[in-house]
Design goal:
The chain has 499 residues and is an alpha/beta fold. It folds into 2 domains: 270 residues, Aldehyde Dehydrogenase, Chain A, domain 1, CATH 3.40.605.10; 185 residues, Aldehyde Dehydrogenase, Chain A, domain 2 (3-Layer(aba) Sandwich), CATH 3.40.309.10. 39% of the residues lie in helices and 21% in strands. It contains 16 helices and 23 strands. Strands 15-16-17-14-13-19-20 form a 7-stranded mixed beta sheet, sandwiched between helices. Helix 6 packs across helix 16. It is globular and about 85 Å long. The N and C termini lie far apart (73 Å).
Amino acid sequence: MRQIDHFIQGGSGGLGSGRTHKVWNPSTGEVQAEVALGDAALLARAVENAKKVQPEWAMTNPQRRARVMFRFKQLLEDNMQELAELLSSEHGKVIDDAKGDVQRGLEVIEFACGIPHAQKGEFTGGAGPGIDVYSMRQPLGIGAGITPFNFPAMIPMWMFGMAIAAGNAFILKPSERDPSVPVRLAELFLEAGAPEGLLQVVHGDKEMVDAILDHPDIAAVSFVGSSDIAQYIYARGAANGKRVQAFGGAKNHGVVMPDADLDQVVNDLAGAAFGSAGERCMALPVVVPVGEDTAERLREKLIPAIHALRVGVSTDPETHYGPVVTPEHKARIESWIDTAEKEGAEVVIDGRGFSLQGHENGFFVGPTLLDRVTPDMESYKEEIFGPVLQIVRATEFEHALRLPSEHQYGNGVAIFTRNGHAAREFAARVNVGMVGVNVPIPVPVSYHSFGGWKRSGFGDIDQYGMEGLRFWTKSKKITQRWPDGGGDGSNAFVIPTMG
């Protein structure tokens, strides 16, 4: 059986604790590999390696750092097919989705290639008599990322792309469910010219997470995962004096106004709700039609569109979505459908018990449509993270606005309408961090930033873009005066005024 090791100092890190975790092939239901789980001792080795290489990397001029990022970008493009196939084999998402996973991470690497400009400071000449004031952004030292299973390429690159470009060393702890792509990214980064030890990958479970949060030489931690764990990581990391950003769960809503183009809405929902088997923090699992007439017309169009979705193995180019990641996750999704039914939701299309001929042991869940879901239902309150679309009917615009605004999660939301005033009002007033107007998955481009509100995000700074640069650097402010000589220095310790 294939063994997946840590990537320490440019090579194998050894088995660490001796414990391992199963890596499944979701399409077949078979265990295809085992990944080594590390411990605090293994993390300490990685930190020592990072401490040796980071100071010199920080002193490397930003243009040379950018050249490494440019070469890495090219290697990602050259190896796109390999990365997508490897990703699909462990996650289960179809090849096109896997390529999108890599591509969205690559776009952050493209932004990081502009680090010579992005990391420039500010300067004010003549702020006072003979006084200049300027600032510079300097790296923190060693950063760490703890990433989820659903985007094993994109989210690691969101983190380490900006962190390393800014002059930090980085230690990545990916999900143990699909760990091969993060290791391959580290290998390609080394091939791009990065020094050994600059980007290292350690595998592990809670033991490794706690070791990262407690290690005194790790200055900052970025996390994406469930909200309960995000809150735990934020609290423990901050208590240890670290800078922390921790992004949690989501329950994104799509509000459908009566004037919306329903054919386009249904097409968008098919991809946004069911693409990647719904295993996206920016999926659209709740649709909110405004008015009973809108709800009935939307439901009528949704049913045949959902029945037309093709579920299959990740390598089938005709498949719309593949299996979910593990047998435990399949059971969890089906349990939520059970709960919704018991709570009184109408199961319009039932994906429980789905079986794919020839792959009966795969972790497949059929597309599911639930209608007449209400805000008091637990299945509405919590994140299902599977191919399940819930219809929550709203009486009018203000009702539709309240639903996502009052939900515990505030990651993303979308409104579908032809009315510019309604769209503008909704975007301005909704209590959610990312808003789409006729855009079902409103993930900002790489030169903006990503981040949700409420229990979807803990910490003050978002991912990637200039926000990412601010997270992975600290600002130093310098006020300087150069006397023209000849003074006796009697006022050398007086704080100068700027008037």
